[in-house]
Amino acid sequence: QVSQEESTTTYCSSEITLDTSTLLFNEKVALPNLEALEISEINVDKIWHYNQIPAAVFPHFQSLTRLIVWRCHKLKYIFSASMIGSLKQLQHLDIRDCKDLQEIISENRADQVIPYFVFPQLTTLRLQDLPKLRCLYPGMHTPEWLALEMLFVYRCDKLKIFAADLLQKNENDQLGIPVQQPPLPLEKILPNLTELSLSGKDAKMILQADFPQHLFGSLKRLVIAEDDSAGFPIWNVLERFHNLEILTLFNFSFHEEVFSMEGCLEKHVGKLATIKELELYRHYHLKQLCKQDSKLGPIFQYLEILKVYHCQSLLILLPSSSVSFGNLTKLVASGCKELMHLVTSSTAKTLVRLVSLGVYGCRAMTEVVINDKDGVEKEEIVFRKLKTLELCDLDSLTSFCSANYTFEFPSLQELGVICCPKMKIFTTGESITPPGVYVWYGETADQRCWANNDLNATIQQLHAEK
C-alpha cells in the first residue's frame, strides 16, 4: 500500500524508499548510472525539483534509457524544457494513467527562443489513459524524433496527433502568433514507424484521411482500438499499409463479421498476402469471423497466426465455409465465454500447417472439433505439424471431439489438459501420437507423464488417478 508520505520507486531491480511529501527527486540526487526508472502511484506534483532545473544537475540522470510513469495522478508534466538536452540516451518513454497530466514537457516561460527538442535514441513512445493531456509542449517548438519506431497513443482524447490546423490563434494575442501545433512531426516520423497503435478519433483519421502512401512504408504492425464501426475497412488499410504484417483490433462494434465489404476485392487480393497475423480483442458482439457465403475468404487464407480474446458472442471460431485457413501455424482462443466449438471437422482437415493450438477460459466449450458431416465412418483427421496443444480452464469440455474420427498427431510433443474437469477421454475415436508426448493434466498441471501412442488411454489413466 503506497501512501502520500512514503512511496517506493523501482530501478535496476532494486527498491528505494523515498520521502515524497513534497517532491520525488531534489537537486542533491545523483544517479549517473541509472538506466531504467519506473515510478508508480506517487502523489507528487513534480518528479524533479525545479521547473527550471540547472543544466549541471540533470546530467546526474544522463544514463537514463527507460522511463515508465503510471498512476501518478497529481503530475501536470513529466520534464521541464531545460532537461531535454540531457536525455540523449532515452530510448523508451511510457506514460500511463496519470489523470491530471496536461503536457509532457513544461513550458519555459522566461525563454523567448523557440525550443528545439531532440530525442536521438527514443524508439518507443507510449501515451495511454491520459484524459487531460493536450500536447507534448504547450508553445511553439521544433521537435526531432530521429529513431522513433513504435508509437502508442491510446485514450488521450484531448491530444491531437493528426491536427489538421497547425496554427491556432491565442484569443488574447491580437497578432495571431501560433501557440499550438501537432505534438509530433508526422511527415518525419511516420516513414520510420514499424508499429503504430491508435484509438478513437486518431484511429478514424489514420483509416480515412488522404495521407500519402509513402508515409507508412515501414509499418509492420497496426493496432486500432475503440471504434464504433460495424466492420473494419480492410481495403483502406491495404491501400496505404503495403508492408503490414500484423493487424490488431480492440473493442469494435462488430456484429456479423470482422471486415466490411466496402471496396473492390479483385483490386486488392494480391496485397492480402502481406498480413500474416490477426489479433482480435474484446469484440463483445462479434458472432463470427465471416459469413457463410462471404467473399472475404482471401483475407484469411494467407494468415499464419490468429488470436481471439474475449469475444463473448462467438459460438464457433472456424466454421464450415468456403474460407480457407490452410496457412495457419498458430491458433489461440481465450476468454470467449459463449464459444462452444473451435472448428468444424471439415475445416480441421485444412489446418495442415498448424503447429500450436491453445484454448483458454472458454467455459462453454464442449468439444474442440465438432462434426459437420453425416454418417462418419473411420475418417481420419491429421494434424501433421501440430507440436503443442493446450486446453485450459474449459469447464464444459468433455473431449477433443465426440465424433468417431481417427485423429493423428505425428509431430505432437506437448499436451496440456488443465482445469478441464469433465474431460475423461481425449476423443471418442482413436487418437494416435508418436511415443514420448509430454502431458500436463489436473487442476494445476500437477499430474505429468510421458504418454504412450494412445492419448485416450493416457487421459483415462490420469483422470482415474485424480
Q: Which features characterize this protein?
A:
7 helices, three-stranded parallel beta sheet, 16-stranded mixed beta sheet, about 25% strand, single chain, plant defense, LRR_dom_sf, about 475 residues, elongated, At4g27190-like_LRR, disordered N terminus, mainly beta
Short overview:
This protein is mainly beta and 466 residues long. Helix content is 9%, strand content 27%.
- Indicate the percent of residues in helices: under 10%
Strand content: 25-35%
Q: Note the main sheet.
A: 16 strands, mixed
- List the uncertain runs: 1-14, 164-180
Structural class: mainly beta
How many angstroms separate the termini? 40 Å
Number of helices: 7
Radius of gyration, in angstroms, nearest whole number = 27 Å
Number of strands: 28
Principal-axes geometry comes out as elongated
Mean pLDDT figure? 81
Pfam family, one: LRR_RPS2
Protein name: Disease resistance protein At4g27190-like leucine-rich repeats domain-containing protein
Keywords: Plant defense
